[in-house]
Amino acid sequence: MDRERTRAGPMVTSGVAAFTEALIDRFTVRATPLAERLRLLATASRATATAIELARAATGRDLVVTFAGHDHAHVDPQSIVVPYNDLDAVRDAFAAHPGRIAAVLTEAVGVHAGVLAPLPGFNGALALVVARRGALLVLDETHTAFRVGPAGWWGLEADGVTGSTGWRPDLVVLGGFGEGVPLAALGGRAAIVGRAAPSRAWNADAVASAEATLRLATPDSYAGVDRGADAIVAALHAAFDAEGVAHVIPRAGPLFSIAFRPAAVLDDADARDQESWRYPPFARAMAEHGAPVPASVHQAWFVAAAPGDPELDRILDAVPHAARAAAQASPEPAEDHSP
User: Fold this and answer.
1) Which Pfam families does the record match to this protein (predicted)?
2) pTM for the model
3) Nearest 5 degrees, angle CA 163-CA 166-CA 172?
């Protein structure tokens, strides 16, 4: 039996139907649903692979465009990788492969080269470029659907909080339903999602856990997360400035990262052009003062829940010590391979 829910179709299994209906309603902003139809799958990787399969079936094309610095937990051998935030690079890819690109696959916010946030208006313009060339836009919200706001990053744009309004992807991957919860959702236009074969890889316990996550992820909890991120980012800026450390803090909602460089980070090349050797001493000092942080400068920081006063105070107290360690760091000397 096909365990799914659509606005036009019948409810099948009541618990799953109620859950998918709640998802569709949650990701509806100003009467516009992000997804007309949803299917549940066990992993975001499987959902992404299915989205690519559907795009190929719908367009009769074979190639997929992805962005450097994005990671979709699925590697497709027929991918064309272009710089992020670069519409000309996308247009060039279509020009170089006329009639062959089935989809452009993008993370709502990149989190694998630090935070790679879309430039204002980028997503809306990307959707237009893709549509005009007969391809599909696949939005990967695996890392943002439940971390940045009640309707994910798309919801923030659709509601006019950031980015560009009036655009919608053809397909979307939703993930991050809870730590270790084996569940993802693939949604999009009903005519496209309806082509997918039914999947029963998920289980009832995963759905129950995801429902609990949705109940706890309220507007008040997101406001608390934002306040916590604001405080940490402000402390980082102040401490690095006091130590004279060149830095920027790429940010998208409550997600942020550190880049030891004076200029903004717009793409993967920018993220790698920095004094990354400052980060290991910084991270060690944070841990030594009771505030562990991501191990790599290329990982995003997630404020997973509104931190209480003791937790937040511990982080804020550790930051000046860690900034001093970053300031005192020096690059590793190059190895001498001479005979």
Assistant:
1) Aminotran_3 (PF00202)
2) 0.91
3) 80
